[in-house]
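Can anyone check this?
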Amino acid sequence: MKSNVETLSPTRVKISVEVAFEELSPYIATAYKALASQINVPGFRKGKVPAAMIEQRVGRAAVLDEAINSALPEFYGQAAREHSLLVIGRPVVDIKEFKDNEKLEFTVEVSVRPEVTLPDFSKITVTVDNAEVKDEDLTEQIDELRARFGTLHTVERATKTGDFVTVDLTARIDGAEVDGGKANDISYEVGSNRMIDGLDAALIGMKAGDIKNFETQLVGQKDDEKGDVEIKLKAVKERELPPVDDAFAKLASEFDTIAELKADFTERLKRVKSLEQGAQARDLLLKKMIDDLDIPVPDKLVADEVHDHLEGEGRLEDAEHRAEVDGQVRTSIKSDFLLDAIVKAEEVQVNEIELTEYLIRTSQRYGMPPEQFAQQLQDAGQISQLVAEVSRTKALAGVLGRVNVVDKSGKKVDLEALRPQTPPAAPAESAE
């Protein structure tokens, strides 16, 4: 096999391949076997039909087509490896010449990963928010704790945000009650926005005994259709929060005074704010590199991904959404190219423990047992994607330690102090 590569752009190449007929022989033999298993000829067992009879039945051309279809990916892959091409996306194959007992010539146009020149990380500065605990942050934490120990009291007034109500709901479409669309004695916090769209707005101002109807989107309806929901307000309750004093501290925590409880919350919030600085620094570093570096993106790859995305949403004709998705896809591809370049340059390796930890965290986000999640990834052939994602995350975290990180007040942020500290191994006992 002979091959050469023509660079069409930083992200696009044309591979020209010439294959001698002798190199096609194994694929032709396989094609005969495949066709023999599909043909029934009286007097011959299935799969044992002679080649001459196969050609008589389907033609020599059909055999060669079968062989070429099998051979093309192999020869294309071999050529890509010989020229050290990191191909991505869908190749476009064009058979230029093929004659029986002669040679096969074809070309492949395909997108490739561009070369990414990495910056000097020590010269990069990112500015993060100050890790300060504001009064309102502390108040929010205290109020959340107070809410857990609050008591509800029935009130005779109009409903307002924050109240707890008891309601009956009935959903109808075109006057007919929806299957499963009736529920009684539902307890709901007004303003939580945890149920049907429009419910919170409808409840505001209602009093116990009131009945109100409103239109909203119901499950199973088309986007331009509305259903009718009837709500009957049965009770309005107001939550009374305990006072912020020492008695509350003793009730809600292990502390004896409210001052001790506030001090504990303050330290916890400082830690959270510091961790947020680390996450913010990571995101800002990635964004800065993407913005500053000239990372070419294959237009064909972008177009394919955008098309697949819009087709899945049924929005191929939505030009505004297309432009939005196009930008998102380009940024995502640039991010992958950049992080993969860092992985290669830093020679990042991922161990089994890191993979397991990442798998557990990800499975929790999907609400699945880790074993089930891992099996789904394996069945879908996505284990390599998992490894790539962990490698990229590790690579970015690694170079972040070389970046200058300061807060908005100009103070240097020590990200190393945020890393989990591995306790030193216990000294081995000497053998007696």
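Reply from J.R.: I decoded it. Confidence is low (pLDDT under 50) at residues 421-432.
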